[in-house]
Known about the structure:
Layout: E1 33-38, E2 41-45, E3 50-56, E4 59-63, H1 72-84, E5 90-94, H2 100-103, E6 114-118, H3 119-128, E7 138-140, E8 143-148, E9 151-156, E10 168-171, E11 176-178, H4 191-195, H5 199-211, E12 216-218, H6 228-251, H7 255-261, H8 265-288, H9 298-316
Parallel strand pairs: 4-5, 5-6, 6-7, 11-12
Antiparallel strand pairs: 1-2, 2-3, 3-4, 8-9, 9-10, 10-11
The chain binds zinc ion.
Amino acid sequence: MTSPAAGDAAALPDYAPIPRSALGPALNEQGYYVGRVERNLYYVTDGVYQSAFLTTPDGVVLFDAPPSIGHNLRRAVAEVASAEGVTNTVTHLVYSHHHYDHAGASSIFGGDVTRIGHEENRRLLLRDNDPDRPVPDVTFADRHTLEVGGERIELAWHGPNHSPDNIYIHFPDHDTLMFIDVVNAGWVPIFNVNLSDDVPGYMAAPATVLSYPWKHFICGHLGRLATRDDVAVHQQYIADIEASAREALASVNPVPAYMRYGENVWAGVKAHLGAVTERAAAPIIAKYTGVLAAADIEELTYTTTFQIMQSLRLDSGPSGPIHP
Ligand SMILES: [Zn+2]
């Protein structure tokens, strides 16, 4: 395969401009933006990652600690706490899931913070054995109500999706839901259903997101908060891929590819499933270019289509006819 080295910028392709509506507010000199979501709930972004925090009279509750925002989390908390005249001490840290890119700055908040996550979160962090991501002190199986300084946060696990431990963080008194790494507000998912483990769980998650009452949605990526419309557009994108993959699986004839390659059956598999993926992805790329940012980066929709098509074969079945 010949593809230009990432270091050779002049050789890299051009893409469509990103619509302003897919971008967040301008960052400050330190490289972050902190904005009020509602009342004493705030979100912080570096334009790529998002975190959130709640200020209370008894301490600050932090939700995720992406390393790319890193020490700017402390600056954002200090800036807001000072303006509000409340303590800037972070007393609780909730992990949305165990991935390093959302939790890797956890250790900068020290050992006195109460960390909270799903029981799978604890298992996975024990496995990863990473000093940057201390294991949670408080875990739960299905639901946990966190009460700090008169505020209430409802944590829930509805099964595996992006990761085995990814939870829904609901702020019923702030009209907000936080749920990370499934919907990217205004953008297509990156490679392979946003690098997710469980494809049926990933595909079903937006319906669970929409079953909650909320006005503001913290999705974990890019610069702005998401709306219910953003979730609906993402849900339609995934539904369109599923329908297109079903059509392509039913209509691409695999025989010529396997005949062509004979005993090299893996070459036959590659040619067959490659043809299915190309046929399924092409109309999606055409439909969503100009609707979702980066939809014209064909590899992103192509790899997501491949994952969904494989899940239709392997999770839903059938992968092929039963031999007579
Ligand atoms: Zn993740």
